[in-house]
Amino acid sequence: MKKIVIIGGGIAGLSAGCYAKMNDFDAHIYEMHNLPGGLCTSWKRRGYTFDICIQWLMGTSPDSPYHKIWQELESLKNKYVYYNEKPWKVFLKGQVIDFYNDPDRLASSLKEIAPEDSKIIDELSECVKKFYQINQISLTKPNEFLTLFDMIKMMKEFIPLMKFVKKYSKISIDKFTDLITNPNLKRAFKYMKLSTSIEDFIAIPFILSTRKSGFPKGGSLPFAKSIEQRLVQLGGEIHYGKKIKKVLVVNNKATGILLEDGSEIEADIVISAADGYHTIFQLLDGQYMSKKIKHIYNTELLAPSLLQVSIGINSELSSEKGFVEYLYELENPIVIEGKNKKCLLIRNYSFDPSFAPQGKSTLTVTFPSDYSYWEKIYSDKEKYHQEKNNVEKGVLFALEKVIPEIRGKIEVVDVATPVTLNRYTNNWNGAITGFARPYFLNIPRTLPKLKKFYMTGQWIGNTGLADAAKSGRDCLEVICKKEKKEFITTKL
Ligand SMILES: Cc1cc2nc3c(=O)[nH]c(=O)nc-3n(C[C@H](O)[C@H](O)[C@H](O)COP(=O)(O)OP(=O)(O)OC[C@H]3O[C@@H](n4cnc5c(N)ncnc54)[C@H](O)[C@@H]3O)c2cc1C
User: Fold this and answer.
1) Which of 47, 242, 327, 342 would staple 30 via disulfide (CB 3.0–4.6 Å)?
2) Is the CB of 275 under 6 A from ligand 1?
């Protein structure tokens, strides 16, 4: 039995491990952290669960092309999934605006608020419809296996949508917002930039369409643990607290890994499911690179990082059913990272009782964040903690203004910065989803001249959990072909 060693136990690494076992490889994952999931994680403080990842999980519904992968990985087995038809709720001074994920309902509700903007609202609704179509395109094969016939079929489906993606990916949220005349709707769009993290207008219809996807009960870490359980059931192994220092290479062939503790692990095949920059430039010392890869890493914009304030409240707060992002306009701006913030993005997990002890509630407040700001002050621990304290004070002050019933009931506060994110997952500059615009990058899975080595996960162009899982699956399909094995996807 050939041995595959996988670097990293995030969703892509776990998925690669499961498919490796389904195909009779000896699969070993080495993960530097003591938990599975990578970015798909949460942590506990005094009984409260603070989640950083899942808001929407593509593939929860059986009509999604990704559903099959979650079934194969048994990640949703016996799991209740929450849905909400209004993924965004914007609280403005004097008005509350709901954003529905159903495009027709979205259009009619926004037109009631801003009839003067009917044309632009119809355009938004059309964009959401187009994204529903894009999300339905079946992406079952790895790119390497697409035949001419597949390409033609896909092109037929994609071409009308490509024109649309091209047009709207050139428009920023601010530019789109300028076209709106109703002052409240204009401000609501401005604030939604906070939760898309991306400046492009196209992120808004994308999020609205994907938010038909659900939220699995328990959130991120239990979700990752269910895939870890599948791996173990299949006979795979995950080794925690094992940081990889180098990929071992002999005559341009990957032969194993060197751990930080100095031990060497031999392998027939090595897969890196870790951060792309770390893999190419540190684990392999930049020895295996093409002009294309170099260009991408030198020039492509990264997704922003994240600053998260998590709060445990000794009171039962009400919430919508299912995951909703609440955007609250502030009377007075607060200063975060030296910039004025006029709005708070709040996540209220009260819909899922597993997030807090009975009678209590968990909230998070998040901001897209600049890694370099926090990296600069991190070396001065006192300054770093002082800055975290400032963030905590500013956020709690603003939060008590918009949700006054929490006053005097805050039990726990935890601030995670982009440096925290990088420290726990090794993601380059704390980027939450790798490259900001990965869609047409087509980053190769292998590196030039390096045999028996593959990459998987969000840094080869697939962002989000469903794509990370698909990336692990695709990687094994490619390996099976290379090893002249039939690719098998389920083994109970
Ligand atoms: C704030 C936030 C919100 C998000 N929201 C959503 C959402 O709602 N829906 C969605 O679909 N996606 C969401 N995502 C994106 C999603 O979490 C990621 O795209 C996905 O988890 C990436 O998985 P991965 O396995 O490719 O990478 P990672 O999760 O980064 O896994 C890489 C793993 O490799 C390990 N590793 C790295 N270097 C080494 C080393 N040298 N030795 C050993 N181990 C190593 C790391 O510890 C980590 O466990 C969100 C991400 C963030 C941060």
Assistant:
1) 242
2) yes
